[in-house]
Automatic annotation (TrEMBL):
<dbReference type="InterPro" id="IPR025528">
    <property type="entry name" value="BrnA_antitoxin"/>
</dbReference>
<dbReference type="Pfam" id="PF14384">
    <property type="entry name" value="BrnA_antitoxin"/>
</dbReference>
<protein>
    <submittedName>
        <fullName>BrnA antitoxin family protein</fullName>
    </submittedName>
</protein>
Amino acid sequence: MSSSTKSSDFEPLSVSDGAATELFASSTAESVPARRRKAAAEAEAVTVVTLALSNRVLEYFQGEGDDWQVRVNEALNLIVNRHVAREAKKRARLRARTSARRRPAAAG
């Protein structure tokens, strides 16, 4: 809003007349692509282990709430996912490099 525009200059949309939902549905239905949802962490198999963590790490996660073990698991999953993606990218680069060497030179 500019300095000359006040919030009182606007009339709020009423939900009862459906204008707000109609505007929202038409603007977002086409512009926002659908995203695939990842499987919930609870659905994955979980193994209980004893793990030595530094006091700093433990205090950080415990200070954020009672579900600290879930958040430690989520943080570790992020690291694993990045590592797996990085390794897949390396393998793809290596495959591309070796397939380029195998191609015969163009006759010309």
